[in-house]
Write a structure and sequence with these properties.
The complex is a heterodimer of chains A (368) and B (390). Chain A is α+β, with helices and mostly antiparallel strands. Chain A has 7 helices and 19 strands. Chain A has 3 domains: 183 residues, Rossmann fold, CATH 3.40.50; 58 residues, Adenine nucleotide alpha hydrolases-like domains (SH3 type barrels); 85 residues, Translation factors (Elongation Factor Tu (Ef-tu), domain 3, Beta Barrel). In chain A, the strands form 3 sheets. In chain A, strands 5, 6, 12, 13, 14, 15, 16, 17, 18 and 19 form a 10-stranded antiparallel β-sheet that branches. Chain A has a 5-stranded parallel β-sheet with strand order 3-2-1-4-7, with helices on both faces. Chain B has 2 domains: 131 residues, Aspartate Aminotransferase, domain 1; 243 residues, Type I PLP-dependent aspartate aminotransferase-like (Major domain) (Aspartate Aminotransferase, domain 2), CATH 3.40.640.10. Classes of the chains: A alpha+beta (368), B alpha/beta (390).
Chain lengths: 368, 390
């Protein structure tokens, strides 16, 4: 196959590209420039998007012996990921930009471009594996390296995208093996630190980063009864489940700590309440998709598990589609889920599909 | 055989130059040393200086050896600005143009940002032609405040040739020094320093078949300049650092050969670029040829392909063994829209769909034919891949 290897400059994508070459594919490396205002050196916790990372990717491609190009996706990335991130926060939701990047950039814009330019598949260093079932349908599964499993952020992939994806690290047992392999292959990125946090927020402080992008307006922090407890200097940037930084001053009458329960951007209000009010029994979202073949009957409840954050646990649940919504009913309530997050539905290790959460139903009271 | 059509980025080293370069590299001696080894090295250096002076018509003492174009541009712009501005602080305006090379623009912008310089850009039209009337009237109003003018002899991306003599004639009446980056022009059109009226001129070797790292600033005898590098006082105290005699010798041979071949090469290149432009128009009928109907370099053809990204075209052509460029080669390897193409009034999308083909001393007719043969498939694929926006 003609394979385009997306190379971030990190160790995973470098080893993935090397494995694709070894598997006999004709491989070309490409680094996505996601910002034109790139720094020359890595700072903070970022692991991509600087000239240093681009050069790391190029060095790895040279070592592996494949051609290498840098493609500019900065404008598309800004529109589809960064602007979406800002407007989601503006709407009081908690977006997952890595998911958006996979959905709209890597496995959309880049994959489309790759196919148009004559490639058969896109190779990345994600820890997840693609399996074929008895009928020949492709399925996405969790990585064996559970600590690194990235199937969650790939939950947005549809059947066609799976057909053109190659994840050579899917069977890796753990990251140490990949680092050892990179070292054995004499790749200079073997010991490069892992990236974490959001690539376009190098300092890792989302609220601070948003502060000059979303207008700050003072508003009320209220309890469940609507009593004003304090003021905030901008509702954006609060996260459901957040306890610190509320500056309410006086304690609750029962002495228990208070948490952010919901954010109402329209009237600029942050609602707080007790821990138990965070418990959610049901999630739903109209923006959903199936990863590979859709389950045979989705209008009736079926047993599954759901994961609501990248490195979170999975929780037993029942799932069905009703009125164009994916509805997820949790067997045991879970804590602190915010609209905007993605719910990825699993059956064992297999990813079934995902939904962006629009609505949550509280386990203990009327919806907050 | 891979085809190389990116000589404005760098050109293959000439066999004659390589032989001389390697031979002189094994000579011992610092040109500043007094002993016989040093004298021998000095002899190589001064011989090179004389040859360059002869090839471009300047005084041998006007040749200041540097490491290349970027250093020469920085030395000229910062050095002349510092000298003029330190004597008369009211002179803080630098006149230039939007399509200049980054070595010029960024040096000027550094002076603007850090030293209170002001930049006036001579307006230009959609072919890249400078508005000399606007420039003249700006001078009439502001000449007393102008420290320096820097305008390239010909543009490295789109090939448009600027009227250097007209600019120096206008500047002369106000005694304003004019610098020109002549890198793209030298070897492709006649370049005569003494005739030009320039105070300073940048040249480099590697675009003409010399080694990377060999360049010079030609600085008129009466033009003062504050050095950027301080040290041993070499090169008339204007560019300290041990002179590189081998590079100088290689540069001299490169320029001597390039200048002596210039007329014959330009005639050959003109036929090739005409064939190229006609061929591309046949393949892509909506293509826009930049600076098509104005004075331009014979070795440059610059295209804008609507609905395509230059990097898709580059990738597909490169996969087919044909190496061209989307514009100026840049450090990060990221092809943002070219500031040169934007200066023509093109939209962001138009500026992303560019291809630059530049010919050099080693270009043959079959290279042009190979490009034209590879283009239809690449154009079709790039058009299919479209722009990165939905």
């Amino acid at each position: 196959m003609k394979v385009l290897a997306a190379m971030s400059g990190g160790v995973d994508s470098a080893v993935a590209a090397a494995r694709a070459v070894e598997a006999g594919h004709e491989v070309v490396g490409v680094h996505l420039a996601l910002s034109r205002m790139t720094g020359t050196l890595r700072t903070g916790s970022r692991g991509c998007c600087t000239v240093e990372d681009s050069m790391d990717a190029q060095r790895a491609a040279n070592k592996i012996g494949i051609p290498f190009y840098v493609w500019d996706f900065s404008e598309r990335f800004k529109q589809e990921v960064v602007d979406d991130f800002i407007s989601e926060y503006q709407a009081g939701r908690t977006p997952n930009p890595c998911m958006r990047c996979n959905e709209r950039i890597k496995f959309a814009a880049l994959l489309e471009k790759a196919l148009a330019l004559g490639f058969d598949a896109l190779c990345t260093g994600h820890y997840a594996s693609i399996e074929t079932d008895s009928k020949g349908n492709l399925q996405l599964h969790r990585s064996l390296a559970m600590a690194k499993d990235q199937s969650y952020v790939l939950g947005v992939l549809n059947k066609q995208q799976l057909q053109h994806s190659l994840f050579p690290l899917g069977k890796a047992a753990n990251k140490d093996d990949i680092r050892a392999e990179a070292k054995a292959r004499e790749l200079s990125v073997a010991q490069k630190p892992d990236s974490y946090d959001i690539c376009f927020i190098p300092e890792g402080d989302t609220r601070d980063w948003l502060s000059d992008k979303i207008e700050r307006t003072e508003g009320a922090i209220v309890d469940l009864e609507g009593n004003q407890l304090a003021t905030h200097d901008g509702a954006f940037g609060f996260t459901v489940g957040q306890r610190k930084g509320l500056n309410i001053g006086k304690p609750a009458s029962d002495g228990k700590p208070r948490y952010v329960l919901s954010i109402r951007p329209k009237d600029n209000v942050v609602v707080v309440g007790p821990d138990e009010a965070l418990l959610i029994s049901e999630l739903s979202g109209s923006k959903y998709s199936w990863c590979g073949e859709a389950p045979s009957n989705t209008t009736d409840w079926f047993e599954a598990e759901v994961q609501v954050r990248a490195h979170g646990l999975s929780h037993p649940c029942r799932v069905k589609v009703a009125e164009n919504q994916m509805v997820i009913s949790l067997t045991e309530p879970i804590r602190g889920v915010s609209p905007g997050q993605t719910a990825v539905v699993y059956l064992g290790s297999r990813v079934l599909g995902q939904a962006t959460i629009d609505k949550t139903v509280s386990a203990v009271m009327e919806q907050v | 055989m891979p085809v190389y059509l990116d000589h404005a980025a760098t050109s293959p080293i000439r066999a004659s130059v390589l032989a001389l370069y390697v031979a002189t590299l094994s000579e011992i001696g610092n040109p500043a040393s007094v002993h016989s080894f040093g004298q021998h090295s000095r002899q190589i250096l001064e011989q090179a200086r004389e040859e360059i002076a002869k090839a471009i018509n300047c005084d041998r003492n006007e040749v200041i050896f540097t490491s290349g174009g970027t250093e020469s541009d920085n030395l000229a712009i910062k050095g002349i600005y510092w000298d003029v501005n330190s004597k008369d602080p009211s002179k803080n305006v630098i006149i230039s143009a939007a399509a200049e090379h980054h070595a010029v623009l960024d040096a000027i912008n550094w002076l603007v940002d850090s030293q209170s310089a002001e930049l006036y850009l001579i307006p230009s039209d959609d072919q890249g032609v400078l508005d000399i009337v606007a420039f003249d009237s700006y001078l009439e109003q502001n000449a007393a405040r102008v420290a320096l003018i820097s305008v390239m002899w010909a543009n490295n991306e789109i090939g448009v040739i600027h009227p250097i003599s007209e600019i120096t004639t206008l500047a002369k009446s106000y005694q304003i020094p004019v610098h020109s980056d002549a890198i793209a022009a030298l070897g492709h059109i006649p370049v005569d320093f003494a005739e030009s009226g320039l105070a300073a001129m940048t040249i480099t070797g590697h675009k003409l078949g010399g080694p990377v790292g060999s360049g010079a600033l030609i600085l008129r005898r009466d033009q003062k300049l504050t050095p950027v590098n301080h040290g041993g006082g070499q090169e008339r105290n204007l560019r300290s650092g041990t002179p590189d005699a081998s590079s100088a010798a290689a540069l001299a041979l490169t320029i001597t050969e390039a200048v002596s071949e210039q007329g014959e090469l330009a005639a050959r290149h003109k036929i090739m670029t005409e064939r190229l432009i006609a061929g591309v128009k046949q393949i892509a009928d909506d293509v826009v040829v930049s600076a098509e109907n104005v004075p331009r370099l014979p070795n440059n053809a610059h295209f804008r392909f609507p609905g395509c990204l230059g990097d898709s075209l580059l990738f597909l052509l490169d996969s087919d063994g044909v190496s061209i460029s989307t514009g100026s080669a840049c450090t990060a390897g990221v092809n943002g829209p070219s500031h040169v193409v934007l200066s023509l009034g093109a939209s962001n999308d138009e500026a992303m769909g560019t291809l630059r083909i530049t010919l050099g001393h080693s270009t043959k007719d079959q290279d042009i034919e190979a490009f034209l043969k590879a283009l239809p498939k690449a154009y079709e694929g790039a058009k299919k891949a479209g722009l990165t926006r939905r």
